[in-house]
Design goal:
The complex is a heterotetramer, with 2 copies of chain A (413 residues) and 2 copies of chain B (369 residues). By secondary structure, chain A is α+β, with helices and mostly antiparallel strands. Helix content of chain A is 40%, strand content 15%. Chain B folds into 3 domains: 110 residues, Acyl-CoA dehydrogenase/oxidase, N-terminal domain (Butyryl-Coa Dehydrogenase, subunit A, domain 1), CATH 1.10.540; 95 residues, Butyryl-CoA Dehydrogenase, subunit A, domain 2 (Beta Barrel), CATH 2.40.110.10; 150 residues, Up-down Bundle (Butyryl-CoA Dehydrogenase, subunit A, domain 3), CATH 1.20.140.10. Chain B has 369 residues and is α+β, with helices and mostly antiparallel strands. Classes of the chains: A alpha+beta (413), B alpha+beta (369). Strand 11 of chain A pairs antiparallel with strand 8 of chain B, so a sheet runs across the interface.
Chain lengths: 413, 369, 413, 369
């Protein structure tokens, strides 16, 4: 039992470091909170594209992908090692996670030779960024309940409808979209998967303002958007099976490791900085045991990540442990935010520059409800754990086999 | 026995709800929130005209001379509407402090002004992060002048006067300060709920008059906070009621997998637990209202119990409100976050729920001795 | 808003007190923990029967029942007042709750004139005690899934099967039982309701030992037990409807009020009696706030009870608040037991006479899991609150309309 | 990297499971429980023959000379089997204390005796209710004699010797006492789990020999408890695993409303949460085992983290185990209560989970400084 690299891993890591040292600057590890928000989005995108182009040129892009599509045929563990090391350097934020992690592999699995040739190498190089267009306002957790329609007209498909929660739509060239092509078919049977050009004039992208004021996602409206049949991925009516490939490639949180002990130290400091009943807050038994509980969950997450990495390193598929990460982390984050605010007393309602303590807690408290919903709600994660990991039976399905048009969906008004 | 509000009190409640439905809709709340306006002057004027500000103020000072049960009914409605007005600061805190220990001149001046809607008041106690304790008060009153800094002060930037807890000699006194007068500098502070604005008040030799006896400030403050807790608990209960109803309507009308999401057991069971929480909170609130109205010996325990249970019920409700709404619940456009923010502010404003737990157990230990 | 009796209630209460003063002895209110376990069961039953007979003779039995069946036509509030006052006196434990509260009213609603005449007056007088025989090992929360069979032979029904969780079966003369009379009918349609003589030689009563060592319930085995068709209550196949009448009369917890503040004071004392990190436990912030939380729930339960009583007093039906009582109280009881044990530190594992603190916590910890299950599990209570109180939709029912014999039930082995 | 147990260690685990399935079935545990026998002599003899008692004891003292990772594997199996033997008291506590600070004679006598199965040992620290603190120790060692009372002492009535924390002068020392010798009176105490028996030990001028340096008793005790916590955490994790599996099998095979009760969302989601709890606990346990084996600086933090998370996971699991079994889960006949009792005893035996939280935060604050 150890945390050490195998000899092969150590060699590879050294190679990675050598290259990174020569091509990037180490980040100050004490500057734990990087704020790039003051940089214009356009500048950041340009920097990210330049870094990706450079990595491609030097042979460090899409490591796990096959060489024929522009990758390096590396192992998963090598890819993880590169990611770990790259994270120590001062590099632009990644805008390729969805494309490289989910969409590219979907094209590899279901695309025609022409599609692979046209899209994959440019995706690696990064001059064209990709987004995913699955979710809809009326089809949240019930993803297959989507209603955006695609109708065949000649050699094209004409798309109408609305997608939501699309990350990066505003700077993407291509989107991958699931649309309903047959409302008389059963829910999962009437779907087809397409590649669409995000520069089509029928596409209207509107940022969604979140309750914390930030805008990380978009709504995307489609009005008579045309995409050629050659951009269809998989057979007509086979869209759900193709979409599953995308979802199964959703980047796992393996190795992210729960973020170390930073938040715990911050909580200790917050508790030291305030008084409870005339004594330092950190001397209060309830405060002490509560922080201890957070620390235990945090280390549990961290070492669960290590167990997953070990499985990778041993050439195994990581266990189902990965699926619990977001579930636990989001709930704990919400609790930590609330607790940090509580420590501040009446002043806990103050935020930002006017905070009388660490303003992280207010930010966290306003952000965590989103994390509990994005990429699978707590409820969906619990379904996944109980059904896919533990093998418990699914809910009785009353929509099974019915024509989609007869299934109630969305929000009655 | 009749451990319930009377028909007249319920009629008052229903009238108040009708008025606020019309004049404090969630879109109006949102206007105030997005404009960062602090409060709705129109609504403030409206509730003054309806006499709500003086419900519990004696008739001789321009009030309606009703009791606390009537005020509790209105507080509940203020809470359910998320009304963006300095009602709590002015009525539960400022008016209450003056009613309790003000002299006749002070009552004439301030209670009359509050009842008519001409004066907004507030109570300023805290100066720093952490729990309020006698040792954490640095503002000083001497020779009729107040010097020091108070923050956060709810509604401090829009109030006309503040009742300030200050050191006087070796003890504490409460003093009244005209916030529009000399020696007062005030700044709006960023807070999580722009409809319940917070401010920093800096006093530099600001003219001030003592409220109540010299040296009584700490005791009177605690007493006023206890009384205000009862009414604030009703606001929290009202907020929880409304958030529950909105969430209930949503889950009954939102379909997934061919059925209303409200038919899924994980949501149903949480709604059942939230319902139970809220009914226990309501019962504690009733008890506290009864104790306040009757000035019963149990007031301290009942007020803390109401504040804790209604505060927790509201906070738990809004967290699930967002979660049960799914993605849209996290958007700016939906109203969930207005409730989420208000629940947190009410849970902090006159001391955190944790501080009320401390007050409750202190009293319980004393009672058990 | 007040806690005072109305003038009529005050008058009635005075009358009750006068009678009780003349006929019973006031209980020492400080002797909060009565222990009758050292008395033989037979003696207790005899005392309970004598007290009931005396109440009947003097006109204080089954107050709410109609006079024609031996009651007093009293209001519900009068009955509650009698119960409140009687509870202040040193009287035997009641053995009539199920009969008087649930079974009698069922006979009133569904019985023939002969059945009412034969059974109700003797039930009031109390010389014959009654028990309820609904639950079965394979039909717990899904009560209607019961399998005990009743087959018509001539003028009799012959009953075979097993019932469980029967309180008091060992000293009862009569039982009320639901049996399956048609396995080809749908689940709820094949049931019939019977009165059975518990002295039938085909009945075998075995006490169930609970995990805390006590035995409050029985298993009851039926082997060719005969009951005449004249003891059938309601039509053949109409048993579920009759059973619902019984269940709807299940004694609500109105007015019980959560037991006052006794447990909270005991917890405070326990915390005062131990040290945490070298200081009195009661000075620990976490301990303080946790006890405060228990107190808040306790008072919430108490005043929820008062709200229910108020509704009764005002001639209204108590609100749905009653249904939350057991749910909250059982969970809180479990937490309080665990917390009391925790305060005792390593010594918390000691029980009974060897406890180094208040042994109540260990007893509570071992008893509360039972309370969370008896008379409706937490899960069933949450179903009831969400469906019946809040009006949310029921679960999809996959057993609806199927012949009972085709529905899987019980425990696969 | 390979943050996992090795194939050899997993083989040892699997062998241990097979042995315990045969020799420590739940019906055997129940026999010991119902007979109030304290422990299973047959099983104790068996595990001694298999060499488990000396897994981490050096070969020169009759042990197998493996490390703590192997011991952790066995501890997990002891836990999942609810094995009714004084394994923890003897191996994690007594043997560990002697291994850490015993002199060669003591090691020869006691480690050899433990490894062979001839000696049962225990550690006696607490004397009263509440948390263990230096000031709560009254037993006194002077002139080679021990006087005082210890309770509760796990396995104290069946142990051959005890390592006792006692005052010596102005400080504390650990001393070894022959429990079959003079000046020792012992009484079995009623406890919630008869398979992990508790006793009161009264010493009256009982002959005792010092273990480790004079005055080192408190520090060594804390160190031994930390090391034992890692192994006890594996017992708790093993118990949680078994309780989960039994519950899972039950809900998948118990039908209500025509479907397995394991298909109801309220149960599924709880199982998912229990699974998550348990996997986090497992990860903390692995970390702690690694730290123990490597004597890493993180040991104190890792051990406390493992003890807390595995303890809570086991306790939460057994509460839901009964609840998900329904009525039968509350009967004496079903095995749920054996797990329920064991989970509580393990959560108290070497200090409550709350005490471990206190130790953890103390260390974290120190590390953060």
């Amino acid at each position: 039992m150890d945390f050490n690299d195998s000899p092969e891993e150590a060699t590879y890591r050294a190679k990675v470091r050598t290259w990174l040292d020569a091509n990037a600057t180490l980040r100050d590890p004490d500057a734990s909170k990087i704020n790039m928000l003051d940089e214009a989005e356009g500048d950041l995108i340009a920097k990210a594209k330049a870094w990706q182009a450079h990595k491609t040129k030097e042979g460090w892009a899409c490591l796990r992908w096959p060489k024929e599509f522009g990758g390096q045929d590396a192992t998963t563990m090598e890819s993880v090692i590169f990611g770990q090391e790259e994270g120590r350097y001062d590099i632009p934020p990644s805008i390729y996670g969805i494309g490289h992690g989910m969409l590219g592999p979907t094209i590899m699995a279901h695309g025609t030779d022409e599609q692979k040739e046209r899209f994959l190498p440019s995706m690696v190089k990064g001059d064209e960024v990709w987004c995913q267009l699955f979710s809809e306002p009326d089809a949240g957790s019930d993803l297959a309940g989507l209603k955006t329609s695609a109708v065949k007209e000649g050699d094209d498909w004409v798309i109408n409808g609305q997608k939501i929660w699309t990350t990066g739509a505003q700077f993407c060239k291509w989107g991958m979209l699931v649309a309903r092509t047959d409302t008389n078919a059963a829910k999962h049977a009437g779907l087809t998967y397409f590649i669409v050009d995000m520069e089509d004039p029928g596409i209207d992208i509107r940022p969604i303002k979140q309750m914390n004021g930030a805008s990380g996602f978009n709504e995307v409206f489609f009005t008579d958007v045309r995409t050629p049949d050659t951009n269809r991925l998989g057979a007509v009516g086979d869209g759900w099976r193709v979409a599953i490939t995308t979802l199964m490639n959703e980047r796992s949180s393996i190795g992210s490791g729960g973020g170390g002990g930073a938040g715990i130290k911050d909580l200790i400091k917050q508790a030291q900085d305030v008084e409870i009943n005339g004594r330092p807050g950190i001397e209060d038994g309830g405060v002490r045991r509560k922080i201890a509980d957070f620390a235990v969950r945090r280390s549990g997450l961290k070492y669960t990540g290590q167990r997953g990495l070990s499985a990778l390193s041993q050439g195994q598929t990581p266990g189902p442990e990965a699926s619990i990460g977001k579930l636990v982390a989001a709930i704990m984050g919400l609790e930590m935010g609330a607790f940090g605010m509580e420590l501040q007393g009446a002043a806990g309602v103050l935020s930002g520059d006017d905070s009388l303590g660490d303003p992280t807690w207010q930010q966290t408290y306003m952000a965590m409800p989103g994390l509990r919903l994005a990429g699978g709600t707590d409820e969906i994660l619990r379904n996944i754990i109980s059904e896919r990991v533990l093998g418990m039976p699914g809910e009785p399905r009353i929509d099974k086999g019915k024509p989609f048009k007869d299934i109630p969906s969305g929000t009655a008004r | 026995m009749n451990f319930d509000f009377s028909e007249e009190q319920k009629l008052l409640q229903s009238t108040a709800r009708d008025y606020l439905t019309e004049n404090s809709s969630l879109s109006h709340v949102r206007e105030v929130f997005e404009a960062d306006a602090g409060h709705s002057q129109a609504l403030w004027k409206g509730v003054a005209e309806l006499g709500w500000l003086g419900v519990a103020i004696p008739e001789e000072y321009g009030g309606a001379g009703y009791g606390y049960l009537e005020l509790a009914m209105i507080a509940g409605e203020i809470g359910q509407a998320l009304a963006p007005i300095p009602f709590g600061s002015t009525v539960y805190l400022a008016a209450e402090a003056i009613t309790q220990v003000g002299n006749d001149d002070q009552k004439k001046q301030y209670l009359t002004g509050i009842a008519s809607g001409d004066l907004i008041g507030t109570l300023a106690t805290t100066e720093k992060a952490g729990t309020l304790a006698e040792g954490s008060v640095s503002a000083t009153f001497a020779d009729g002048k107040l010097t020091g800094t108070k923050l956060p002060v709810a509604d401090g930037d829009i109030a006309d006067f503040a009742i300030v807890l200050a050191k006087e000699g070796s003890s504490h006194s409460l003093v009244i300060v005209d916030l529009n007068g000399d020696g007062v500098a005030r700044t709006r502070l960023n807070s999580i709920d722009a409809t319940r604005p917070q401010a920093k008040l800096v006093f530099t030799d600001a003219p001030a008059t003592r409220l109540g006896d010299a040296g009584s400030g700490w005791t009177v403050t605690q007493d006023v906070l206890t009384r205000a807790a009862v009414l604030m608990a009703f606001e929290q209960l009202g907020g929880a009621d409304r958030a529950f109803q909105i969430t209930f309507d949503f889950v009954m009308n939102r379909f997934a997998f061919g059925r209303p999401i409200g038919s899924f057991q994980s949501l149903k069971h949480r709604m059942a637990d939230l319902y139970a929480d809220r009914e226990l909170a309501r019962s504690n609130c009733y008890w506290a209202a009864w104790a306040l109205e009757n000035n019963d010996d149990e007031l301290a325990v009942a007020a803390a119990s109401a504040k804790i249970s209604a505060g927790d019920a509201f906070e738990n409700m809004v967290v699930d409100m967002i979660q049960m709404h799914g993605g849209v619940g996290y958007t700016w456009e939906y109203d969930c976050h207005l409730f989420y923010r208000r629940a947190k502010v009410l849970a902090h404003t006159i001391g955190t729920t944790a501080e009320w737990r401390e007050k409750l157990i202190t009293q319980l230990i004393e009672d058990a001795a």
